Amino acid sequence: MSKSYATPQPLEFDYIIVGAGSAGCVLANRLSASGQHSVLLLEAGPRDRNIWIHVPLGYGKLFKATSVNWMYQTEPEPGLNGRSVFQPRGKVLGGSSSINGLLYVRGQHEDYDRWRQLGNTGWGFDDVLPYFKAAEDQQRGPDEFHGTGGPLPASDTRHPDLLSDAFIEAAAEAGIPKNPDFNGAAQEGAGWFQTTTRRGRRASTARSYLRPARRRSNLRVETAALAQRIVFEGRRAVAVEYKQGGMLRSARANKEILVCSGAYNSPQLLQLSGIGPADLLKNHGIEVVLDAPGVGRDLQDHMQVRIVTRCTRAITLNDIVNSPLRKLMTGLQYAAFRTGPLTIAAGTSGAFLKTNPRLSTPDVQIHFLPFSTDKMGEALHAYSGFSASVCQLRPESRGSLRIKSADPAVAPEIRINYLATEADRTANVEGLKILRKILAAPALKPFVVEEVEPGAKVTSDEELLNFCRQRGSTVYHPTSTCRMGSDPLAVVDQRLRLRGIEALRVVDASIMPDLVSGNTNAAVIMIAEKASRMILEDAR
What we know:
By secondary structure, this protein is α/β, with parallel strands linked by helices. The chain is built from 14 helices and 24 strands. It has helices spanning 24-32, 51-54, 59-62, 109-117, 125-135, 162-173, 205-210, 262-272, 278-283, 317-321, 324-337, 422-439, 461-471, 521-538; strands at 12-18, 39-42, 72-73, 86-87, 136-138, 152-154, 189-192, 197-198, 201-202, 219-222, 225-233, 236-244, 247-259, 275-276, 290-291, 303-311, 349-353, 364-369, 385-392, 400-402, 413-415, 448-453, 473-474, 504-506. The strands form seven sheets. Strands 1, 2, 10, 11, 12, 13 and 24 form a seven-stranded mixed β-sheet that branches. Strand 1, helix 1 (24-32) and strand 2 form a beta-alpha-beta unit.
């Protein structure tokens, strides 16, 4: 539950942070560091006591853990044959950084330069690099692109398995250069992913940012506290109402309210509070504070489609999981040394590549994994198998997030519209073709019995696209529902202040003008680092 105090404290703070996720924990640490500002951090979920949160491979156990996962579903997706797509999101201290796949990938330099070119001054790569470095504790040491001594570890693999290494060699044989650092001078190439782990344990923002700050007397953390709405006096945000232990409580902010609830829950809270499309709010009986049609628009996500391969040797994680003895030995190895298969992230090695040579930067990411399953979070296959997925980095398709009810406990309506454009469909099909070339290269050939899914009979572009529609799913990177910008539909300005409202900011993946070309967690932490500096500057 909440942090205990010897005497009751008034529910009045300088800053109230709604959501203790990847961004919220960063803000809680940075805003409370001087001791000059009182901070309240509200989290709908529990403390991060689930043992599987801290074991890297434990993310597979958390997909269906309702205690720490919102477990959202999209509406039926037209581009995926009417299937609803499962959307896991963290509901626990650390948010999705406590249940994600742990990959540390910032995106391309050009992603942030594009943000700046869209009119977001101060968000080009040269502008944001200092905040990436300030956050980072890079295992390999500091250099032009990396920092050390920050709260967030970026670590090399502790389980360099044979198959993942063979994938890198096979990619090189297929014409994709080796790249030892996806977060360095350039992203293109094949190599090992780094992870947000420290000595074989997950380093969520709850562990790396919040835990060191918990003893500060000016920081109060409340868990199991579901925000109901933001309260306004005119156009100024002044308080947050939240439900905890069956009781409705309220906390007042003297300086600012900071919404850090993620790409789904942040626009949901704004809409519940009267900020959003006026017609939607009126339909649910919510008084309109600000008609902001951009709140909940421009939803984007990375889609993935996986190729599953049967392996010739019993060297996959499938073989370990299906052998009681090997499973026991793996557990003992992890307990004793914090090494071995239990340190595997949601991608061991991988690649960033171009599906068209005319492109200036990679448009597809490959995640390689030394195991196979029908769906992430479900049982591994009984046979020896491995998998590799294609993820289009910059989809054109856009969706929306809209409340279904004025009740904050009711899940919102999520529409992502995967594969809605020809460019998105082409990128996925071409990505699969290139991935097949890698999997057929000499370095991997000794390990391949057959392609199980989609299978050798699927050859034409039409058949591959149909496979994408049948089996495509999410890589869990929703963004842009409270988009930063200066156009009429932009929700926040360049300092992440909600346009048209005082004393209210949004700080999380929802403010991204568009998706970054990689896993979003590192970018969200950077956003929060930069936001904390801006918030403190504006408080002077």
